[in-house]
């Protein structure tokens, strides 16, 4: 958990925020934490979209309140729209970290977040930079983490249930599960991470992770 | 309520009656009569009248105008040989046109069944034309005509008393009188001005200034409204050349009335009518001409004569009208029908359709009354009364209904808010108290919240009613905006509701969230969106309140065999509660939304334990808009 888990040798990060001060704080921190990563910056939606079209991004750190182009008024609606577009159409499905003063609008994206192929983490802007780096890790890992104000209760998505059933009731291999559900390898890997998160199974080098998950799922009554 | 709704319509009917009394409906009613006459199919029995007309060809072959008396005498001689009942001369002849004047005089002297024409009622007396003195007064009829204000011919001028001792008869009446006398239906001359003209049993209707649609018409003498509907059989017409060449069959003339006159466009003896599809002049006018036709004077006289004779001999209807009282009663009656239909049916579309049906009925009644018994009913004012009173009533009715509906909705929403907010807190509180589970600080917190909620209710209701805004009150300050897509709305409700401090939610370890994306494209009215949100909220709250220790809450939103399904499944034991009856407000709400969506609401048991609460409804077809309330 302590090291970046991106498989790219030279991952691309994008930080989108219209406040220069924030960029100046966030970007060096990320560069220090991920020396190999190339950290790009954007201050408005249009620039962010151009970078998205040009680079295979691994992580997008984004503020919801964005201006359409430089010099215009920032509005959370623009950030929300871009985020929605990003989740639907971006080819690389980058991991996402939303850093905003008001993350409540994300509520209406939660059903999409559950099935999003990349990691999705949201945090309040007022949290310290260490917290941001921790959550960036979590997002790169493929996890979903939403504060209580966005998601009032932890959820267990139906797709994840399907993974559990196919694995432990039908005994299918990961490849077979992917084919059955029509999802990418990375997506399934992220589903496993989220199932692990939801069942609160802790990584333990001495224990088999899948067996831990199975036991926890049976205990929770998710599979029979 | 009936009074409020119907009063404006009653006023409107009064206005229509006033307009008719002022004569402003005359032209429309005349046109309606003409239209009916044009389309009606009376019996086509052969007319007892033949026209012998001098047309342009005749004028050309004779070569001079006026026609010399010799030619006229020749025509009369040939006609007489075929023994017509009577011959009428529909042209003015008071000076000799040589050659042949002596022969014509002899002809007229020898044949008493030839009747001459005269002009008596010209506004300028010098324009009157006296007949030849060889004709005795009873062998003369006037050929003056009366036309309506719109310039059209609808009436026949039959007789007028000009001096206490002298009464003038029109040429058609003279001809009919002669013809009917031969058929043993004599007519006694009467000098009484108001004495109806009577042939046998037939009394000719007496036209008055306010008969039918007429208002203040010039009703001098004895007049009658022409019924062009009754004799559709075209009156046979021969040209002068036809007669001179004896180019006709004898039975066309024998025992018939022959009217001899001008049918040449160059001789200005023409009138206008809209009541006939075809006249003798029609072939001359442009084919695309409007309904207005030119009718020759001789043709009009022929129609009048034929109508009187057919009425006397074959009971063919003449135009009758009702007395004013009955006409206005008729108009009021139809206004009443309009009001009644709108009040009884209570739906805009139903009222509209029934009003249209009633109008069609009214038109048919008027048409058949004219066709069958010659009764001319006031159609236009009656239809105006029917439609305007009906529509006005409908609008007022709808307005009132809307107000009542609004009031009902306000009460319902208020109760909804109380039910979904404070009452829930109260229920949880009561449960805690009865199970002795409460701590003091929790009790105080809950009571404070209750206090806040109750206080904020008024503001919220007021805002909603006064702005007519579509929003749903959830808790305290949380208000949901219904203009968002339905899928977003439902997720917000889901997320918000399960955050409530309800006993059932505490034990749930697995929330399986729904994916409302299937409803993303669905286009529902605000009322329906609101209903679906309320349903979800209520179903979730029920789990929180009534399920005992559920560990799993599964909310499904999907499409199953063509139906949208919104299903809430828990696996807790059902708590048997007394604080809310089974068919509570929540269930009523659920049934109402199911009805509105033409769907179904069900609550059943889950296996091995728990409850399934579901709403199934068909997707909305784009062309079937459900009525907005």
UniProtKB/TrEMBL annotation, chain A:
Positions bearing 4-aspartylphosphate: 63
InterPro entries the UniProt entry points to: CheY-like_superfamily, EvgA-like, Sig_transdc_resp-reg_receiver, WH-like_DNA-bd_sf
Source organism: Oscillatoriales cyanobacterium SpSt-418
Domain of life: Bacteria
Keyword Phosphoprotein set for record: yes
One of the GO biological process terms: phosphorelay signal transduction system
Residue span, Response regulatory domain: 12-140
The name this protein goes by in its record: Response regulator transcription factor
UniProt keyword annotations, A-Z: Phosphoprotein
């Amino acid at each position: 958990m302590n090291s970046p888990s991106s498989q790219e040798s030279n991952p691309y990060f994008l930080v989108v925020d219209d406040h220069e001060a924030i960029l100046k704080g966030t970007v060096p921190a990320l560069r220090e934490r991920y020396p190999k990563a190339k950290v790009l910056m954007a201050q408005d939606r249009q620039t962010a979209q151009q970078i998205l079209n040009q680079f295979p991004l691994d992580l997008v750190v984004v503020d919801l309140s964005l201006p359409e182009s430089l010099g215009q008024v920032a509005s959370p609606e623009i950030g929300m729209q871009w985020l929605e577009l990003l989740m639907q159409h971006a080819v690389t499905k980058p991991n996402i970290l939303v850093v905003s003063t008001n993350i409540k609008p994300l509520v209406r994206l939660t059903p999409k977040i559950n099935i999003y192929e990349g990691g999705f983490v949201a945090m309040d802007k007022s949290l310290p930079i260490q917290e941001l780096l921790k959550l960036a890790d979590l997002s790169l890992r493929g996890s979903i983490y939403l504060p209580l104000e966005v998601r009032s209760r932890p959820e267990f998505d139906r797709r994840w249930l399907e993974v559990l059933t196919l694995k432990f009731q039908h005994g299918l291999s990961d490849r077979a599960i992917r084919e059955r559900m029509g999802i990418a390898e990375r997506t399934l890997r992220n589903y496993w991470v989220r199932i692990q998160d939801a069942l609160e199974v802790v990584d333990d080098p001495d224990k088999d992770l899948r067996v831990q998950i199975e036991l926890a799922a049976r205990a929770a009554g998710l599979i029979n | 309520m009936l009074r409020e709704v119907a009063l404006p319509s009653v006023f409107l009917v009064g206005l229509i009656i006033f307009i008719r009394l002022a004569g402003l409906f005359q032209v429309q009613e005349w046109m309606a009569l003409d239209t009916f006459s044009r389309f009606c199919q009376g019996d086509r029995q052969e007319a007892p009248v033949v026209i012998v007309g001098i047309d342009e060809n005749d004028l050309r072959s004779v070569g001079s105008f006026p026609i010399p008396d010799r030619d006229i005498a020749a025509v009369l001689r040939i006609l007489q040989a075929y023994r017509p009942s009577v011959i009428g001369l529909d042209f003015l002849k008071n000076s000799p046109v040589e050659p042949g004047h002596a022969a014509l005089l002899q002809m007229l002297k020898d044949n008493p069944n030839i009747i001459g024409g005269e002009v008596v009622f010209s506004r300028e007396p010098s324009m009157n034309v006296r007949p030849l003195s060889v004709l005795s007064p009873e062998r003369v009829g006037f050929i003056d005509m009366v036309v309506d204000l719109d310039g059209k011919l609808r009436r026949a001028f039959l007789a007028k008393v000009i001096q206490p001792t002298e009464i003038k008869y029109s040429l058609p009446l003279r001809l009919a009188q002669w013809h009917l006398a031969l058929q043993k239906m004599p007519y006694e001359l009467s000098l009484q001005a108001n004495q109806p003209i009577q042939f046998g049993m037939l009394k000719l209707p007496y036209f008055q200034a306010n008969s039918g649609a007429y208002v203040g018409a010039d009703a001098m003498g004895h007049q009658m409204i022409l019924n062009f509907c009754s004799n559709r059989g075209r009156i046979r017409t021969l040209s002068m050349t036809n007669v001179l060449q004896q180019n006709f069959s004898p039975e066309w003339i024998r025992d018939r009335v022959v009217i001899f006159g001008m049918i040449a466009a160059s001789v200005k003896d023409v009138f206008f009518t809209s009541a006939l599809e075809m006249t003798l002049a029609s072939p001359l006018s442009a084919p695309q001409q409007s309904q207005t036709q030119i009718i020759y004077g001789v043709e009009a006289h022929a129609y009048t004569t034929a109508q009187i004779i057919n009425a006397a001999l074959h009971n063919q209807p003449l135009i009758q009208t009702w007395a004013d009282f009955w006409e206005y009663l008729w108009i009021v009656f139809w206004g009443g029908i309009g009001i009644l239909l709108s009040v009884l049916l209570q739906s805009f579309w139903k009222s509209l359709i029934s009003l249209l049906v009633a109008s069609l009925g009214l038109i048919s009644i008027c048409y058949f009354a004219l066709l069958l018994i010659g009764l001319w009913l006031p159609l236009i004012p009656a239809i105006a009364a029917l439609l305007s009173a009906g529509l006005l009533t409908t609008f007022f009715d709808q307005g009132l209904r809307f107000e009542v509906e609004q009031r009902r909705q306000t009460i319902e929403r208020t109760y909804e808010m109380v039910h979904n907010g404070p009452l829930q807190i109260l229920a949880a509180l009561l449960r805690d108290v009865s199970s002795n589970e409460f701590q003091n600080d929790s009790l105080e917190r809950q009571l404070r919240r209750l206090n806040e909620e109750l206080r904020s209710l008024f503001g919220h209701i007021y805002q909603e009613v006064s702005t007519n805004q579509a929003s749903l009150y959830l808790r305290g300050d949380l208000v949901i905006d219904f203009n968002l897509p339905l899928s977003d709305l439902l997720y917000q409700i889901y997320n918000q509701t399960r955050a409530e401090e309800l006993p059932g939610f505490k034990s749930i370890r697995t929330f399986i969230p729904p994916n409302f994306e299937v409803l993303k494209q669905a286009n529902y009215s605000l009322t329906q969106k609101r209903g679906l949100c309320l349903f979800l909220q209520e179903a979730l709250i029920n789990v929180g309140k009534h399920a005992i220790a559920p560990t799993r809450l599964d909310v499904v939103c999907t499409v199953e065999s063509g139906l949208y399904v919104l299903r809430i499944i828990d696996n807790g034991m059902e708590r048997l509660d007394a604080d809310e009856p089974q068919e509570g407000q929540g269930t009523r709400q659920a049934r109402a939304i199911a009805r509105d969506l033409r769907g179904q609401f069900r609550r059943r048991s889950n296996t091995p334990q728990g409850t399934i609460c579901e709403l199934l409804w068909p997707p909305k077809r784009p062309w079937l808009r459900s009525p907005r309330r």
